[in-house]
Amino acid sequence: MSEVLDSLAAHGVVPVVAVDSAAQAAALAGALAEGGLPVAEITFRTPAAEAAIAAVAGRGDVLVGAGTVVTPAQVDAAAAAGARFVVSPGTSRAVVERCREHGLPVLPGAVTATEIQAALELGLDTVKFFPAEASGGVAAIKALSAPFPGVSFVPTGGVGPGNLADYLGLDSVRAVGGSWMVPAAAISAGDWTGIRDLAGDAVRRVAG
Ligand code: 3PG
């Protein structure tokens, strides 16, 4: 794994964020850092993604990545904005190759044996298991780890305070992703102390 993926694994949780502005992103990143979770995957689900990544990268105290990256052009935008890693909902050769050109670690989505083999063929050994709960959750990851002992997973989608420990208890799971500590309502209300506290709670749960 790359140094950046090692760092994600050390934090254990990757907040998956959608914001409407760069200012929101900067404030949100501050709240995550104060809560002890200085990591943010900012998704290309809003037009603000590129500016938001740049704003968080500019702070220098939060490990920022780009999420929901589905095209090589978005990889270029993420790299230009200062993203340190890329997350994709599925496995795309074009996206993975563009990430490699930029020297960016990439976590492509894979939940079936075929998709995992495709990621392996692209030279990857860590995938986003998405959508985790809807794809069989812990039981599915356990079953897939038998034929793919060298593969690590970052389950995301339906992961939260109630099941995070079950996922992190698996040897093959390096970290989980989720949006529960960065709820859309709290972001739009500017409830940064609420987000700080949710991040702090996530950190305590990872520590067990
Ligand atoms: C993602 O894109 O990774 C998911 O939307 C996050 O899933 P969650 O909202 O269920 O945590």
Automatic annotation (TrEMBL):
Q: List GO molecular-function terms, semicolon-separated.
A: 2-dehydro-3-deoxy-phosphogluconate aldolase activity
**SUPFAM superfamilies noted in UniProt:** Aldolase
Q: Does the keyword rRNA-binding apply?
A: no
Q: Does the keyword Transit peptide apply?
A: no
- What CDD domains does its record include? KDPG_aldolase (cd00452)
Q: Give the Enzyme Commission number.
A: 4.1.2.14
Catalysed reactions, semicolon-separated: 2-dehydro-3-deoxy-6-phospho-D-gluconate = D-glyceraldehyde 3-phosphate + pyruvate
The pathway noted for it is: Carbohydrate acid metabolism; 2-dehydro-3-deoxy-D-gluconate degradation; D-glyceraldehyde 3-phosphate and pyruvate from 2-dehydro-3-deoxy-D-gluconate: step 2/2
* Gene3D superfamilies attached to this UniProt entry: Aldolase class I (3.20.20.70)
A Pfam family per the record: Aldolase
The alphabetized UniProt keywords are: Carbohydrate metabolism, Lyase, Schiff base
Enumerate the NCBIfam families for this protein. eda (TIGR01182), PRK05718.1 (NF004325)
Q: Name the family the entry cites.
A: Belongs to the KHG/KDPG aldolase family.
The UniProt subunit note reads as follows: Homotrimer.
- Its recorded name reads 2-dehydro-3-deoxy-phosphogluconate aldolase
Which species is listed as the source? Answer: Sediminivirga luteola
Source organism lineage? Answer: Bacteria, Bacillati, Actinomycetota, Actinomycetes, Micrococcales
